[in-house]
Amino acid sequence: MQSALTGKKVSLFAVFVSSVFLAGCSSAPSEAEQSVNVEETSIKNPPISESSDTAQPEPIGAPEIVASQDPKPAAVADDPETDSDVYDPIEGFNRVMWDINYDYLDPYFVRPVSLAYVNYTPDPVRLGVRNFLANLDEPFSAVNNAVMGNGGKALDHFNRFWINSTLGLLGFIDIASAAGIEKRSKKEFGDAIGHYGVGHGPYIMVPGYGPTAVRSFADTVDGFYPPISYLNFWASFGKWALEGMEKRALLVPQEATLEQSPDPYALTRDIYIQRQDYNAEVITDEVDEEQEAYIDDYLEDFE
Hints:
Elements: H1 2-27, H2 31-41, H3 63-67, H4 72-76, H5 91-120, H6 123-136, H7 138-147, H8 151-166, H9 175-178, H10 189-195, E1 203-206, E2 210-213, H11 233-250, H12 255-260, H13 264-279, H14 289-299
Helix pairs in contact: 5-11, 7-8
């Protein structure tokens, strides 16, 4: 009798262990699936030597991925929506465009052309061209600052325009700065409406151009102000190309930061949106001081 009871207990125990084992196998992801997720997350992420004494900046939007030893956060990293509030409804398409820009167009065309322009164009010529192009932006920057309620900044843009356009030989010479009038970053119409609460809209990665958002299309309004309105298509394209080469050259020191990020696409997206908020002078309720300091360091060359 006792041996029969013992046999039943052993049988029940075996059934219990088997059911737990089968339930665990059905819910645990396979190693192959985890490997695919980790590989998709690590776009151009070179290994960092543990013996290095230099502290690497913490990637934005993925602090838990860097700090945690648990492999689960890395598997979640392929869904940037978990760490970002950016509206990115066509993320799949955007990531394909990012791969085209980052892996092909930039290293084989945009970067070498930009560096060739910066390295081989005489500095006085580059400075004069840069001053001339920036002077074209002063009128619409004055208007947009006035719309935003920045009367002092609007007056600075206005004074810089007429002084540099006359005494500065159409803006090639920056007389206004020598006169003590501060040179400010341009303000576009998208910044003005963003200041009053208009959202960014869907985020878009444009091949050969880079990141943008639907709200930025409102900047076309600035093209109706003279002297920008006098430029034809090719003149406008030349202005965009020359300014783009200058900005691309400024990003060379930041390439290592982008390459070391576990998700360069998400990093670029978050930096772009936060810079747009900065230009629109949008104040958020919650501010991550460490993250803001990191972004300021990343974008300080554009000021």
